[in-house]
């Protein structure tokens, strides 16, 4: 039985921390129809979910930049004297540096231009390779055991690895169902670097993730496979940058339970009767929303797992006769360990072998161990606790 509990609690405030690698930035240049820069234009970027707004203005060369934006849906509004106001929808992803250059139309404040489509732009601000596992994938793709990092395998250049990072290979890192064994860009699993909301989440012993978050606590995450920027220099392999959910201006939450049960599984060809037993439950709930004043937001998540499983395996056990010291039908020669003595004919210039033994022992007559040499405690254990053979070699 492997019980595990995941508890995540985050209080999210609107802070401008541009150094954090989980935050996005928006920049661009405004020009008029004659391709001249538009200076002193008012630029406002508003988060659709929380209503938090950031304001700025273009410089003399028409350039603007708004750093430190949490991933999510935004609207950008632009107002400049002599030009029609512009409003455009944007979607910013974790760690994204979006560049948005626009041409303003001549007009007055009564005429406005609203762009309803979400801006799709090429990555022109950095050369990083990788993909973002978006919120839709995190929330809707099926996950065996609710292991979030399994979604990283959907990123090109990433596949399942092996070793201590699997979570079940090394006693020092025993975390069943919370493995971190990812081979990204051909690097070893211990070369990866994990972050949560810009903070390091990497175990320095095995370079695995410290905290395995519930998918319901995660908004999205980014897997960079190469050519990443300097702030992501904590490891030479893949960079897994996770962004958690936050509260919004509206209360929202989930309650869930995912069930796996051996009663619903097919029986394999070599399955022993009664050997198929699995009961696995993943359950939890999440809640987010505004605090007093609607300028501070909270999000809380709890997830628990209960798992009981049996596995079929093959082991060699003694027959009832062998448990009593009778090896006459086993096809093996049994020797008396108390008769061990040095071999006077041993040749030290030759390797030890069957024809050149270093010591000699006497074989039990008929391969029968005398009852007087049987340990009573061992005999009792063999009779009471060791199962009898239920299959014979063909």
Characterization of this structure:
With 394 residues, this protein is mainly beta. It is 5% helix and 38% strand. It is built from 3 helices and 24 strands. It has helices at residues 135-140, 320-323, 376-384; strands at 4-13, 24-31, 42-47, 53-57, 63-69, 72-79, 86-92, 97-99, 102-103, 113-118, 129-133, 158-160, 182-184, 193-196, 199-200, 202-203, 208-209, 218-226, 239-244, 252-261, 277-290, 296-310, 335-342, 359-363. The strands form 7 sheets. It has a 5-stranded mixed β-sheet, with no helix packed on it. Strands 11-18-19-14-15 form a 5-stranded mixed β-sheet. Strand 16 (202-203) and strand 17 (208-209) form a beta hairpin. The longest helix has 9 residues, at 376-384.
Which key terms come to mind for this protein?
about 5% helix; five-stranded mixed β-sheet; elongated; about 40% strand; single chain; 24 strands; mainly beta; about 400 residues
Number of separate helices: 3
The tally of strands reads 24
Rough outline? elongated
Tell me, rounded to a whole number, the average pLDDT. Answer: 84
| Unreliable stretches | 1-19
For the biggest sheet, the summary is: 5 strands, mixed
Measured by DSSP, the beta-strand proportion falls in 35-45%
- SS content category: mainly beta
Question: Radius of gyration, rounded?
Answer: 33 Å
Order of helices and strands: EEEEEEEEEEEHEEEEEEEEEEEHEEH
Secondary structure: helix percent: under 10%
Give the strand order of the largest sheet, numbering strands 1, 2, ... along the chain.
4-3-6-7-10
